[in-house]
Design brief:
This protein has helices spanning about 15-30, 75-85, and strands at about 5, 10-15, 35-40, 45-55, 65-70, 70-75, 85-90, 100, 110, 115. It is of the alpha/beta class. A 7-stranded mixed sheet has the order 1-5-6-3-4-10-9.
Length: about 120
Amino acid sequence: MTQATQSQQRGILMSDSALSHVLALREKQGKDLCLRVGVRGGGCSGMSYMMDFEDPANIQPTDEVYDYDGFQVVCDPKSLLYLYGMQLDYSDAMIGGGFQFTNPNANQTCGCGKSFSA
């Protein structure tokens, strides 16, 4: 286990549907992976969300780690400034389905919902 901060209070919230979908995707990878969530410059509104599976060995000491019954969601401190309190949800609706980000820190969100400005 790394020295990363294990938070009881979760700065990134996941709905049950998002968690179950992420766990199903991880299962297809065939490895014990964590989910890294962050932001990067770009997208329609200036910053875009990113998330990807990652080997837990890559967790940095400065990362925030949120535990969901043994599954780890990881975020770097710079991204967390923009994401703290964000709710990640998942819908399998035919139109508008997929992952949805509800971010209380976003001043503006683009129409696709995948980028924002703060």
